[in-house]
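Quick one, T. Sequence first:
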Amino acid sequence: MTIEYDDKGKFYTDIVKKLPVSVVIQTVTHLVRGLVHVRDGERLKNELERDEMFLAVTNAVVYSADDKVLFTVPFIALQRAQIIWIMPVDKENQKDLSE
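C-alpha cells:
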C-alpha cells in the first residue's frame, strides 16, 4: 500500500472503499445470489459499466434452472458477457424471494 501526502497534509492511498450490495444475477444458464461490491458513492450500474471481463461476487449461491442449489462459494467471478440481468435486493425483498 502506498500513501501520498499533499502540501496540506491530506493523504491519499490506493485503497478503494467498496460497499456490499445484495444482488440476484441471471446468467445464460444459472441464477446467482450474492454480494457485488460497489465503490462508495457509486451505483451498481457504475460497477457493471467498468471495462473488466469479470464481475466479482462474494458469498455466492448458484442455482440450477430447476432452482436447486449447485454451489455455495465465498467468491465467484462471473463473465460479464454471460449476465442477462442483475437486480439489487434489499433485506425486505430478500424475504419475499426466499418464500
